[in-house]
Amino acid sequence: MGAVGVAIRPATDDDIPSIRAILASHGNDGPIVHGDIVGPYLRHLIAHGRTLVSVGDDEGEGTEVIVGFAATIDTGRGWHLADLFVRVDRLGQGIGRPLLEAVFDGAVERSTFASDDPRALPLYVRAGMTPLWPSLYVEGTAAQLAASSAAAGPETEAATHDQLADIERAWTGHDRRLDHAFWASQVDADPFTVVDAGEVVACGYARARQASAVRVLDRLVVHPEADPVAATFAALRRAARGGPVFICVQGPSPVLRPLLEAGFRVADRDTYLASRDDLFDPTRLIPNPGMR
After folding, report:
1. To bridge 217 with a disulfide, which of 87, 165, 239, 242 should be the other Cys (CB 3.0-4.6 Å)?
2. Which residues span the domain enclosing 218?
């Protein structure tokens, strides 16, 4: 149980329309122009993560309605909070905190990316996570990449999600094969490796965005001994396909400054919080914020 008159239960696919309505009210879902990104993401979290909904009585009418939802996923180094949202008209009613406690289910190692909503960060700090650095959503163009001093570098090659899962497991020890299959299934997904002198130095995914022509470098893992700047610029060139491209860069990343010097701009920001500062290396991972 959470707030008075509100119960918490596992989410099902039947709950997705109500969950999407909550996301849309917070500006996190919108028109489907280039293909549905949010729906498959939610189905993956329900099937392979831990996804819960808070349900209550709609104004005493006896009808169950979803008033909040939360989802976590196992990254191999703890549980990552993918989403936590409460219906706008039910904010401040004590729904979020019990939902957060339930979805972490006693997990010791925890992480998330918190929005600028002033309610979010205190909630996560009280749940055992420390603000560690800004997570910046940076946008630019293929032309800016080409004009950068970091333009020359490794090449990229197409790959399968099984190959990328094997590579990440060899480098990190974490088996995320189900997540790799999901990343490869997204709209206009492009799984690839970055190759330098015949050696794979990074692997990742690019994809379309739901309502924008801007493409996304959705996730990139860089080899522990490779140059993250060269590898990331090569990945961005592939992801951009000659046009605009979007990337989530962590504050400590050495990639941030050369991107800004190339003319990329910060379009938005979150704050990364975690129970420990070593749950991932921000200099060698371009994370998928929902699944890290």
Report:
1. 239
2. 135-286
